[in-house]
Amino acid sequence: MSDTTQPSGMASMDHTDMDNTENGSMREQEGVVRVSPATVQNIGVRTAEVPVEPLRRTIRTTGQFKMDERGMRTVSLKVGGWVETLHADYEGAIVKKGEPLLELYSPELVATQEEYLLALRNARRMEGSSDAKRLVEATRRRLDHWDLTESQIEEIEARGEPKRTVTFHAPTSGEVMHKNVTEGQRIEPGRALMDIADISTVWLIADVNQQDLPWIEEGMPVRIRLVSDPGETQEGQVDHIYHMLDTETRTAKVRITLPGGHRTLRKPGAYATVYLEARPTEATPVVPSEAVVSNGEREVVIQALGDGRFRPRPVMTGLETGGRVQILDGLSGGEQIVTSAQFLIDSEARLEGAMSMMMGDM
Questions:
Q1: The CusB-like barrel-sandwich hybrid domain covers which part of the protein (predicted)?
Q2: Among 273, 276, 271, residue whose Cα is nearest residue 219
């Protein structure tokens, strides 16, 4: 890389000839601008060689822990009645799958148990009767549809009489949330009584800026630092990228699934700092971002040809990070390009081109 001192003033650009023309004047070859050494010194032109290498990026953002929605279960009954005993009687209670949640007195359940026992007795008396067997199957199916377990139905058969209350059990393990029932309350079929959240896993939802989305992919590694545990770093990976973009913040959400647990610091509502480790790009020519001149329609870099000669090179840029940008087309690597004062050289090149066109029309 070459360097110059800070300019004390701006000198004019000098354009010397390279090719003879018909009228004997000399003109620099097309697209090339010659700048005198004094001007190069004064405007502080710096150059650097274009390397070919991959880009690497770590994106830092903030995430919030949430319940794993896939582990949420709403508890509701398919039969109405009165809650005589509520075992899961407060929010935050930890239950295991199969544990009792509540005991229900239901006139419908009592009547159906009586029908089932009567059908069993008739089937025994009328051994071999297909109608009696169908009646037993129909009443047993009704009990099954109301979520009585196989062991509960067998217990009714063994007792020979209906149970006044029936116990309903937790459909999954987890933490009781949004409890909407109390002991002694009459409930209707289908009413949401409580939610049970599986706390064995949690989601960490992080916001990623729109310009960083090209770096994000499912499966990419993640480092996490908890606000409540600043000395520890945990690891995970992105398992889902949400499709919708927030129109106000211009961010998209990514999801990281992590182990949970009742005593873990990864609690829903807590915040964490998230570091997304993007996979290195393929090796391409890479230039400093400030070396690219753009007017909204075209992008160019200024190539230094030596002996004070410079030429604008149209390029196509790619991903950008850390003040460096990929060049997807226009450079092959190894070229010397201008990294400072390129706007002045580019303006001079445009002016020279316009003047050449005007002179050619005269």
A1: 73-197
A2: 276
